[in-house]
UniProtKB/TrEMBL annotation:
Gene3D superfamilies: 3.30.2010.30, Neutral Protease Domain 2 (1.10.390.10), Peptidase M1, leukotriene A4 hydrolase/aminopeptidase C-terminal domain (1.25.40.320). InterPro entries: ARM-type_fold, M1_LTA-4_hydro/amino_C_sf, M1_LTA4H, Peptidase_M1_C, Peptidase_M1_dom, Peptidase_M4/M1_CTD_sf. This is Leucine aminopeptidase. Its cofactor is Zn(2+). Binds 1 zinc ion per subunit. It comes from Prunus yedoensis var. nudiflora. Keywords: Hydrolase, Metal-binding, Metalloprotease, Protease, Zinc.
């Protein structure tokens, strides 16, 4: 626990002398004094401080208004924690898989922080309106990423989401109810229909409104929305009534009923435009024609670039191509689980058995559902010819169950 921050103020003439500083330096233009209080006495070697541009909370406040929860702490849990993060007010829980040596893990922190407004301040009334929590938070996450990490990072993040949304439409083609924003979940276990739809379609809906009214007007609307409904639970109709009252005529420009009650992806949803995003997607398409990326083309790729590339590759790659891709870029050994799992899913789809040891290790090493569900599903889905994969899945699962049941 850190010392308590009590004030941010202008320097006072003379007070710098105790720290061997002159007034000219202490009170120079642009200088501020940050005051902290530590209630317990400590020896000097235990005094430590970290300085950095943390930025996320300020970006969140610029978007939504004041942070209402005083503290924002992060607790990194053991690898068995099943989620990326959980936005418990004042103390977000995180999976250790986010610590991977680049800035992409920070996007989950941005997401959980954004829940301090959308989700924790304004909560969906029931799970049928879950998109009010997650769509807004995904929108806010990307605005924070854009402000702190730049437009290209935000576009990559949106692109990965767009890809995910399209995959969900395929997954639920026989259960279209789940592809609506406002769903009917009577008699349904919310875990059975958990998907990216409330996140990504919700994001697309809000992004569509932003494009219609322009960012300044939408930002003003967001602040008013938070201020009006904070510490309340609301449903989709309450949101839509407020939207129509505050952005008059919006229902004539954007089909609000189609977006909230319709199935599938509305025609005015939008794939992001960014040079990095388009380049990666076209490189993935070239793979279908047999072209692998060159070392220099991927030299500065971080986890998200690889994730997007792998997600856009065709699912029916030859096992020999998987082996070549890995011998060049060592993706199966990536410290970034997003990359490693995207690669292992391709390996399973291509029945590239050389990588099954790594699949087994991964299933045993982490508990994050985002990785386990697709890996287990890939192993057991598909009819004949998958016997070895099914045996592997059962064997690992049985051992995991024995470990976690007392
Ligand atoms: Zn969330």
């Amino acid at each position: 626990m850190s010392a308590r921050h009590v004030d941010r103020r202008d320097p006072i003439s003379g007070e710098g002398a105790a720290l061997f500083s002159t007034d000219a330096l202490w009170c120079a233009e642009g200088r501020v004094v940050e005051e902290f209080v530590m209630e317990q006495p400590i020896p000097p070697y235990l005094f430590a401080f970290a300085v950095g541009e943390l930025g996320f909370r300020e970006a969140g406040e610029a978007l939504f208004g004041p942070y209402e929860w005083e503290r924002f702490d992060l607790l990194v849990l053991p690898p068995s924690f099943p989620y990326g993060g959980m936005e418990n007010p004042r103390m977000t829980f995180l999976t250790p898989t986010l610590i991977k040596g680049d800035s992409s893990g920070a996007q989950v922190v941005a997401h959980e922080l954004a829940h301090s407004w959308t989700g924790n301040l304004i909560t969906n009334k029931t799970n049928e309106h879950f998109w009010l929590n997650e769509g807004f938070t995904t929108y806010a996450e990307r605005r924070i990423v854009e402000a702190v990490q730049g437009e290209d990072r935000a576009a990559l993040n949106i692109g990965i989401g767009w890809r995910g949304l399209n995959k969900e439409m395929e997954r639920f083609k026989d259960n279209l109810e789940v592809t609506k924003l406002k769903t009917n979940q009577e008699g349904v276990d919310p875990d059975d229909v958990y998907s990216e739809v409330p996140y990504e379609k919700g994001f697309q809906f809000l992004w569509r409104i932003e494009r219609q009214v322009g960012r300044p007007a939408f930002d003003e609307f967001l602040k008013k929305y938070i201020a009006t409904f904070k510490f309340q639970s609301i449903d989709t109709d309450t949101f839509l009534d407020f939207l129509k009252a505050n952005l008059p005529g919006i229902e004539k420009e954007v089909d609000l009923i189609l977006w909230t009650e319709g199935t599938g992806i509305p025609p005015d949803a939008y794939e992001p435009v960014s040079s990095i995003y388009s380049k990666i997607v076209s490189m993935a398409n070239e793979f279908k024609l047999g072209r692998m990326p060159r070392e220099d083309e991927v030299a500065d790729w971080q986890g998200q670039e690889w994730e997007l590339y792998l997600e856009n590759l065709p699912k029916s790659i030859e096992a020999s191509q998987i082996l070549e891709l890995n011998s060049r870029f060592r993706l199966s050994e990536s410290k970034d689980y997003e990359v490693k799992v995207a690669f292992l899913l391709l390996a399973i789809a291509s029945k590239c058995k050389e990588h099954y040891v790594e699949v087994e290790k991964t299933l045993k090493a982490v508990g994050r559902k985002k990785y386990l569900v697709p890996l287990y599903s890939a192993l057991v889905e598909g009819g004949t010819g998958k016997e070895e994969e099914k045996i592997l899945a059962k064997r690992v699962l049985q051992r995991r169950v024995t470990l976690i049941t007392p």
